[in-house]
């Protein structure tokens, strides 16, 4: 039986939220774009499509009304995820870290086993992370990527010192990407990895999500 634990993302996010405020400004005009990250646009239509996928999945749940009520900042949450994914990609690339398809599938398989099957796993992801079934692999990729980044930096995510090292790498990557957000969605905080006043509801939650050890792959 697996003991309860924080995910790598949850442990790091809790540390970042406690860090001093250092916001990146987002006061430029972005016609049609939700944000510009590293010179590349994230279109509003992309954010809306991802949110629509979640709403569709929520609508098929017996707890539809409750799920919708708890995910009022869904568009902002989806933009946050897209921005953070690019920051993590940049930090990983800077550290020479790559993620294989095999590693993603092993992570997913481990979580399926822990949650008791596909249906329960998808329900947990939808409820706790506002992630639709077709978005799960992207989330699993980050669950593989972050511990590998920590390992490449010689950092232990289970310790405050290790979390600080990884947090500094993410902040460096975030600043390098010169993230500029459409004011409609708020501003991006390089230090906290946070979008406006949005804080993902799962980031400080102790869960049973994820295997005890990060899987390895070729």
Automatic annotation (TrEMBL):
Q: Which PROSITE patterns match?
A: PROKAR_LIPOPROTEIN, TAT
The signal peptide here is: 1-24
Output the superkingdom of the source species.
Answer: Bacteria
InterPro entries, sorted:
TAT_signal (IPR006311), Trigger_fact/SurA_dom_sf (IPR027304)
Where are the coiled-coil regions? none
Q: List UniProt keywords, sorted A-Z.
A: Signal
> What Pfam families does the database record attribute to this sequence?
SurA_N_3
Name this protein carries in UniProt: SurA N-terminal domain-containing protein
| Organism for this UniProt entry | Streptomyces anulatus (Streptomyces chrysomallus)
């Amino acid at each position: 039986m697996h003991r309860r634990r924080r995910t790598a993302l949850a442990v790091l996010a809790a540390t970042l939220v406690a860090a001093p405020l250092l916001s990146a400004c987002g006061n430029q005009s972005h016609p049609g774009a939700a944000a510009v990250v590293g010179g590349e646009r994230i279109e509003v239509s992309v954010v809306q499509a991802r949110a629509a996928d979640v709403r569709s999945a929520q609508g098929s749940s017996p707890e539809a009304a409750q799920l919708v009520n708890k995910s009022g900042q869904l568009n902002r949450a989806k933009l946050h995820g897209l921005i953070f994914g690019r920051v993590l990609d940049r930090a990983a690339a800077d550290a020479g870290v790559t993620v294989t398809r095999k590693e993603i599938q092993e992570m997913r398989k481990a979580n399926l086993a822990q949650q008791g099957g596909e249906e329960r796993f998808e329900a947990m992801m939808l409820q706790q992370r506002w992630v639709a079934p077709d978005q799960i692999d992207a989330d699993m990729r980050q669950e593989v990527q972050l511990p590998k980044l920590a390992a490449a930096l010689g950092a232990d995510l289970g310790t405050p010192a290790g979390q600080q090292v990884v947090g500094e790498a993410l902040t460096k990557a975030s600043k390098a990407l010169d993230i500029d957000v459409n004011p409609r969605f708020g501003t991006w905080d390089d230090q906290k990895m946070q979008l406006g006043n949005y804080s993902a509801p799962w980031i400080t939650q102790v869960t049973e999500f994820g295997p005890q050890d990060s899987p390895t792959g070729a």
